[in-house]
Design goal:
Layout: E1 4-9, E2 12-13, E3 17-18, E4 28-35, E5 39-45, E6 59-60, E7 71-75, E8 81-88, E9 92-99
Length: 103
Amino acid sequence: MRPIVVTTSGVSESSPAVMDHYISPFNIGMGVVITGNATCTVQHTFDDVFDSAIIPTWFNHPTLDGISVDTDGDYAFPVRAIRLNQSVGNGSAALTIIQAGIT
């Protein structure tokens, strides 16, 4: 899979990056790069973000929660979508996602 990059600037949420939850094994590598003063959390949902009748429930990643320095992590279990939530600061952040098994 080609890398997907989602960004935030100031207190905001990125667009959701939709994953292929049918890929087995489901492996995702991620890296967050912080610029300036920002505190961010990587979040995931099991809900269909394209279904307008559903408000997705977002869960915080267990180790990429409240980070304020460049950090990497992964997902080894299927999720439907991933986003970046910047809760503090006027800086910016970029989340790069790569899912294995897709060309």
